[in-house]
Specification:
- By secondary structure, the chain is of the alpha+beta class.
- The chain has one domain: Phosphorylase Kinase, domain 1.
- The chain is about 25% helix and about 35% strand.
- The protein contains three helices and six strands.
- Strands 1-5-6-4-3-2 form a six-stranded antiparallel beta sheet.
- The longest helix is centred in the middle third of the chain and has 13 residues.
- The chain starts with 5 loop residues before the first strand and ends with a helix.
């Protein structure tokens, strides 16, 4: 099984082994997968999005799509740091944003 992470930005790498040692907290689940807040052993905080299997993509096609996503820059998008692809696991990595989720930003926090 291929256990490497492909980085699309120069962020100082981490590997899957350090990710497995990270503290993780579930953030939410959506139609594309589940997101986790992870604190790496070096104290960096990232979000790991574990993708559901929606339609089969080859490693090459997935990599092409993730590199295109990683090249996008917009104020409303978190930049993609990197990704992992294996037959049974597709993970996306983002910096953690402190200011809540998109729903709360649009609609305000509901107490």
């Amino acid at each position: 099984m291929k256990r490497e992470i492909t980085f699309v930005r120069d962020v100082g790498g981490f590997d899957l082994d350090s990710l497995l040692k990270a503290t993780a907290e579930g953030l939410g689940r959506g139609s594309f997968g589940t997101s986790y807040k992870s604190i790496l052993p070096d104290a960096r905080v990232i979000v790991v999005k574990r993708l559901r299997e929606l339609s089969p993509l080859s490693s090459e096609e997935f990599s092409k799509q993730m590199r295109a996503l990683g090249a996008m820059e917009h104020a409303n998008l978190l930049p993609l740091l990197g990704f992992h692809y294996s037959e049974n696991e597709k993970l996306l990595f983002f910096n953690f944003a402190q200011n809540g989720n998109l729903f709360d930003r649009i609609h305000g926090k509901i107490n």
